[in-house]
Design a protein that fits this description.
1 helix, 126 residues, 7 strands
Length: 126
């Protein structure tokens, strides 16, 4: 029984050690081209409901090759992070989410609202 538990723990450790290496293989270069502040839902609503944390929504345009992604970013801070201002970033796309790796190796998931092919102006919403 002990032997089985030890083998299971070792196998789990090996699998966990290889996950970070495979997660960053499809990273591609992109550039943040626009940041606009979007109004937060229910920010100015008056009610008797308990107070909730205020969140700020940003619409961020990220261009990768000839595709322009319009993404949503939610933050607890009123000002957008300065590391996003017209900066080159690394991105990887999985379904309707664009994973943006910022300088300093911080990865932020951003929901893709639409994407447009810049040359042919084809647009698709999610």
């Amino acid at each position: 029984m002990k032997r089985g538990s030890i083998l299971c723990a070792l196998a789990s450790g090996v699998l966990l050690a290889t996950l970070p290496a495979t997660a960053e293989t499809n990273q591609q270069s992109a550039t943040v081209v626009s940041i606009t502040n979007s109004p937060a839902a229910g920010e100015n609503a008056l009610s008797d409901a308990p107070l909730r944390a205020v969140t700020y929504l940003y619409s961020i345009g990220i261009q990768q090759d000839n595709v322009l992604y319009h993404t949503a970013y939610e933050s607890a801070f009123e000002n957008a992070p300065p590391v996003l201002a017209h900066q080159p970033v690394q991105v990887s796309r999985k379904g309707g989410v664009l994973y943006v790796t910022l300088p300093g190796k911080r990865t932020v998931p951003m929901t893709i609202e639409t994407h447009t092919i810049v040359n042919n102006t084809i647009s698709r919403s999610y």
